[in-house]
Amino acid sequence: MSSAINMGSLAGLRVLDLSRILGGPYCGQILGDHGADVLKVEPPQGDDTRTWGPPFRDGVASYYFGLNRNKRVQHLDLTTGPDRERLLELIGQADVLLENFKIGTMERWGLGYETLSQRFPRLIWCRVSGFGADGPLGALPGYDAAIQAMSGLMSVNGEAGGEPLRVGLPVVDMVTGLNAVIGILLALNERQRSGQGQFVEAALYDSGLSLLHPHAANWFMDGREPARTGNAHPNIYPYDTFRTGTEPLFLAVGNDRQFASLCGVLGQPALARDERFISAGGRSTNRTALKAALEAALADFEAESLVRQLMAANVPAAPVLPVDAALNHPHTAHREMVVEMGEHYRGLASPVKLGRTPATYRHAPLTPGQDFDPLPEESV
């Protein structure tokens, strides 16, 4: 193994990624970025997301490329006995098994957790599922947008008075992938003490509900149904998009000091002394009047230069950028948030920065592989 692989914080960890679509593959990519040897097993036709385009490169969609870096791939038809036997060989070499088959599928193949945990007691089995295995919705398939609808996320997303909206990215799938990573790392830490693996589950339904802060906290306290507020925060103000003399900007003012600084930069110090706006609660309660007063002042400013002034005054503010501008921003480059491998691969880099064992980028998507790499001298 190369020294780059040995540098990773998860070097020596062997992950067998049987998952497809988003939550599971995202989990596997994160583990791979941090040094794990991830072998992704796909059916003969490949992961469904290979077809989720355009755009495509050589017949494979960008969607797939965004989730399957730092893995080597082999194809097995698990409906056949010989390929299930091959899978058992691979499981015997793995620390972690990651899967998101429809619940009951692995059991029908004779590869359920209860069976395999007896044979491989150190194995950590991570299942990404829609609703878990039991309960009123147990074993039903789950999809990001459907969970956004069921969990209440859509009900609080959208313009005030408008229709509920899906968040414009697969936030439930991605957070479920992150929760799967957390669960795997917790189980690995516990295995160091007990020597035993365990079953880990990250369900989309649970993850969707977990995202409801502060709306759930508000409801638990006063029982009032949360409402859609557009870009505005339900508890804090000014925490919203505001018109200026040019483009809109976003203000995220969370305390009295920041609000006073904002009023100073805008040349409106009296606003900070207005009884309606002098406290955080007052600013939130009187947000309609405050927004009107701020936008009247902001009309005299150009957004880009004003954002620089506000940030220099420690007032949280930001331009509202499209995706291409965000990815081409100088600070994106400084934070090394775009990774390139070979002639054709570009993707988002790991957002987790470790000083001594940073993420490494070793395998572009579609790198073939038939087995795990030999273990390094110091393994997990």
Describe what you observe in this structure:
The protein has 380 residues and is an alpha/beta fold. It has two domains: 218 residues, 3-Layer(aba) Sandwich (Rossmann fold); 71 residues, 2-Layer Sandwich (formyl-coa transferase, domain 3), CATH 3.30.1540.10. It contains 17 helices and 14 strands. The chain has a seven-stranded parallel beta sheet with strand order 8-7-6-1-2-5-14, with helices on both faces. A three-stranded antiparallel beta sheet has the order 9-10-11. Helix 2 links the parallel strand 1 and strand 2. Helix 2 crosses helix 8. The longest helix is centred in the middle third of the chain and has 24 residues. The N terminus is likely disordered.
How many domains? The number is 2
What is the C-alpha radius of gyration, as a whole number of Å?
24 Å
Distance between the termini: 15 Å
Number of strands: 14
Spatial strand order of the main sheet? 8-7-6-1-2-5-14
Count of separate DSSP helical elements = 17
How would you classify the helix and strand content by structural class?
alpha/beta
What is the averaged pLDDT score? 95
Look at the structure and name the CATH superfamily of the largest domain: Crotonobetainyl-coa:carnitine coa-transferase, domain 1
CATH architecture of the largest domain: 3-Layer(aba) Sandwich
Main beta-sheet annotation? 7 strands, parallel
CATH class (first level) name of the largest domain: Alpha Beta
Low-confidence stretches: 1-5
